[in-house]
Amino acid sequence: MDEKKKDEKEKETKAPDTPDTEKEKTAEEPKAEEKKTEEKKEPTPEELLAAEKDKYLRLYAEYDNYRKRSQKEREALYAQVKADAVTPFLPVYDNLERALKLGCADEAFLKGIQMTMTQLTGVLEKLGVKPIDAVGQKFDAKLHNAVMHVDDDQYGEGEVVEEFQKGFTLGEKVIRFSMVKVAN
After folding, report:
1. What is the pTM of this model?
2. 52 FRET partner, CA 20 to 30 A, in 10, 71, 77, 162?
3. Which residues are within 8 A (CB) of 176 and not within 5 positions of it... i.e. 6 or more apart?
4. What pLDDT, in 10s, does the model give residues 2-28?
5. How far apart are CA 53 and CA 74, in angstroms?
6. CATH for the stretch 49-127
7. CATH of the domain spanning 129-184
């Protein structure tokens, strides 16, 4: 019997989940929930309005950036397409220029070449294509392609002495570099 009494006493001291403690726990849970709901207050109309205004301003800014980016892309694409369309006509310009340099015994034929060259030059100018001035200029790697060098004291250091092929720009973009001979 002594053992039974000892076991009962141990059970009483070890039993933490008695009905009284469970009631205390359930009473504490609603208090914790009340605190959470108090923390999650309903936003005021001014706060809601400010949040919606912020969303609107962000959306407007995003659309404005999209519009500007699209405009820049269209302009860049237009310039690239124009350059691609003009580039095949540059060898025609070169051939007409060579024909004019050679000259011809037939004045009517020479006059026809000059008129064709004038017309082609006019069309290129209307499209915004401009020739690059090279001879007598300082060599600029952004505009010129040096294919020969000459040692001559008559010319300055890095001066373009001769132009073998005319270069062209479209706006600020070089569509063909000038092939030149440069003095050292």
Report:
1. 0.62
2. 71
3. 87, 90, 165, 166, 167, 168
4. 565 555 656 555 545 555 555 555 555
5. 31
6. 3.90.20
7. 2.30.22.10
